[in-house]
Fold this sequence. Notes:
Elements: E1 11-14, H1 24-50, H2 56-59, H3 62-75, H4 83-98, H5 102-120, H6 129-136, E2 141-146, E3 163-166, H7 178-187, E4 194-198, H8 201-211, E5 214-218, E6 232-235, H9 241-256
Parallel strand pairs: 1-2, 1-4, 2-3, 4-5, 5-6
Amino acid sequence: MTRYLDTRLRALTFDLDDTLWDNQGVMARTEEAHYAWLDEQLADWLAHHDGECRRFSAAMPIERYQAHRQHLAKAHPLRRGDFTWIRERALVDLLEAFGLSRASAWLWASRTMARFHALRLEVSPYPETEPMLETLAQRFRLGAITNGNLAFHRLALSRHFDVVIAAGEMPAPKPDARPFLATLSRLGATPAQALHVGDSWQEDILPALRLGMQAAWIAPHAPADTPMPAGTYRLEHVRELPDLLEWMEREQDIATGD
């Protein structure tokens, strides 16, 4: 008796930033706004408690904050993908250097990160994303694998996903295979039964292919005739995914004679 491997898609895994929404503007606004919030709020607090008129941003410009984050990522390679930890630790270090006590530095760093996460949630999913996920969730189990530090569970969109993994906090940021394997395990699917959707060739597509998954590469700026490895499909926008899945299902039916 001939046995056939079950290779019909059972699960879809998604990257989030720049796959389900445009993240560039969000991150630029969040980066500037949470640091400006700290500068303003801390100045008011110092004026009220110490009678001082000092501005944190004058002593610690945002470029120093960004450089210190890069330093921490290199100094703590196992935490390089845990962006929340790196940001908070960088803020504590700079606030202490500014003259705050350790306890006050942690308090203000924590409050600033709360502001960061609130701003980070101000994403605008593409109009097609919500109805598309609602329909796909009726046919497939859905997972999200992100290197970002978005509090995704606080977005209504998250209700469509069976599994959400913040890879950097494992800590095993993509392209590490572990977040993919953990997601597939929780979805109850083998790599051959899953397709990953993402915009990064290095962090999404390559690790998925190495595991034996299929992959949909969101690459609007790649030439249409870009050679694709077997099992890889180039899309200009995530809205094209349902059509791709229908085509893949027809091809599977032809291959199996169904």
